Amino acid sequence: IVMFMFLSFFTLYNIPSLIKRGLSTLPPHSREYHFVNQLMTWTEAQSYCREHFTDLVTIYNSNINQLLLSISPRINNWAWIGLYDDRYSWKWSMEGKLFYVGSTHEFLIWANGQPDCVYAKEYCVSTVGYPREIKQVCKFISECW
């Protein structure tokens, strides 16, 4: 199975020099998005993103949501994003007010019936090839955005 991770980070680098594998685009917000072909849990995906780039993707508005969907029209399996439940509220993995200047990080589009707390252990969020977010157990092995 080919798995993908989607990452988001600020960049001042030459885009072609960063693209060694996968797909990349640079929107006008000076953020770069990458697919990386690796299978991991949410925590592993977050660690990988932080080590190699900045963090898992934060979908902070509908424009970014549509951009991600246009880049990855063939993804129809689960894909991790940077959203998680810290026990009291849903938060994005990428914290910090400077990251959200001129935007909001409260953008959420839940799938029907989500979040549902079915297993009481669903603390991380994935997508399913369309712009809906679904909770998953963080140790679930999944595609990643």
UniProtKB/TrEMBL annotation:
<dbReference type="InterPro" id="IPR016187">
    <property type="entry name" value="CTDL_fold"/>
</dbReference>
<feature type="domain" description="C-type lectin">
    <location>
        <begin position="28"/>
        <end position="138"/>
    </location>
</feature>
<dbReference type="InterPro" id="IPR016186">
    <property type="entry name" value="C-type_lectin-like/link_sf"/>
</dbReference>
<dbReference type="InterPro" id="IPR001304">
    <property type="entry name" value="C-type_lectin-like"/>
</dbReference>
<feature type="signal peptide">
    <location>
        <begin position="1"/>
        <end position="17"/>
    </location>
</feature>
<protein>
    <recommendedName>
        <fullName>C-type lectin domain-containing protein</fullName>
    </recommendedName>
</protein>
<keyword id="KW-0732">Signal</keyword>
<dbReference type="Pfam" id="PF00059">
    <property type="entry name" value="Lectin_C"/>
</dbReference>
